[in-house]
Write a structure and sequence with these properties.
24% of the residues lie in helices and 25% in strands. The protein starts with a strand and ends in a 5-residue tail after the last strand. It holds the Pfam family TauD.
Length: 302
């Protein structure tokens, strides 16, 4: 097995060739070698793309489990959709789809065609996912693009004064049902401050558990509150961070098509997605491997 990595942009991303998943994933020794190589590559490139490798549910599970280093999977299926049809023999797989079953039920967590703002998957969990494995099953033509931003670079490009201000600050991730869609991002907050102060706290600047490099973790809504700060001060910092994000040029975009498998570092990247107007269906398989620990603040660097 000779893996080849073709860089896709100066900031992040690589297309991977030279692996026959249907053979390697059934061989324990070969799988272990592959997972070690891919984890190292993921630390370097942050996003890995494999073309034309439509994997079975069992194989995509083995791949995601191996890349995740044996950590449990995070269940981020929609809680208000208990009757949704996902993958019966592999409950770890979340189906994201605009399709419906013959009986009219949503296939998986019913998706839509709206554009999404930059976000981390499962950020409101106590220990968010560290790695996301995504498999394209059915996509429109052309496929809507997913974009990833290098959050190491996002942090490195902050002014020194702002870096110092952010060190030690924690954002409050309220599980209030707000979505990653641009229409929610652009609307004012609708819940009182007291409600938005309940939720898990994560640092705005974190240390990556594998590379020990600092990265920026930005909540996906401007009305997010920061522990110990007033609502007004929280909004000031969030506006500065989002203005910084929208001005950056350290991202890469790719239209995930049927048969593609994409693996990304959910800590050192944030991602967004184009909307589309086509009535063609889009169905994806999504697996979220839990990080080894909760996000570590940069103050632990010393």
């Amino acid at each position: 097995m000779t893996l080849s990595f073709e860089s896709t942009s100066p900031s992040l991303g690589a297309k991977v060739s030279g692996v026959a998943f249907d053979q390697v994933l059934d061989d324990a020794a070969a799988s272990s070698e592959l997972f070690d190589a891919l984890r190292q590559a993921l630390d370097r490139h942050l996003v890995l793309v494999f073309n034309q490798c439509d994997l079975s549910a069992q194989h995509i599970f083995r791949l995601a489990a191996g890349i995740g280093g044996g950590t449990p999977f995070v269940n981020i299926k929609l809680p208000d959709n208990p009757g949704a049809i996902h993958v019966p023999d592999r409950p770890e797989i979340k189906v994201i789809s605009t399709e419906f079953t013959p009986s009219g039920l949503p296939l998986g967590d019913a998706g839509n065609t709206l554009a999404q703002v930059w976000h981390n998957d499962g950020a409101a969990e106590d220990v968010p996912p560290g790695v996301i494995t995504f498999s394209g099953k059915r996509t429109p033509t052309p496929a809507p693009e997913t974009s990833w931003m290098n959050m190491y670079e996002a942090y490195a490009r902050l002014p020194d004064k702002l870096r110092n201000e952010l060190a030690g600050l924690k954002a409050i991730y309220w599980k209030g049902g707000r979505s990653p869609y641009f229409e929610d991002f652009e609307t004012p907050q609708t819940q009182p401050e007291a409600v938005r102060r309940s939720g898990v706290r994560h640092p705005l600047v974190c240390l990556h558990p594998s590379t020990h490099r600092p990265y920026l973790m930005v909540p996906m809504h401007r009305d997010t509150l920061i522990e110990g700060l007033s609502g007004q001060e929280s909004r000031r910092i969030m506006d500065i961070l989002w203005d910084h994000m929208f001005a950056l040029e350290c991202s890469w975009s790719y239209g995930i098509s049927a048969g593609d498998v994409v693996i990304w570092d959910n800590m050192a990247t944030m991602h967004s997605r184009q909307g589309w107007t086509s009535e063609e269906a889009r169905t994806m398989w999504h697996l979220a491997s839990r990080a080894r620990r909760a996000p570590l603040p940069i103050t632990e660097l010393a």
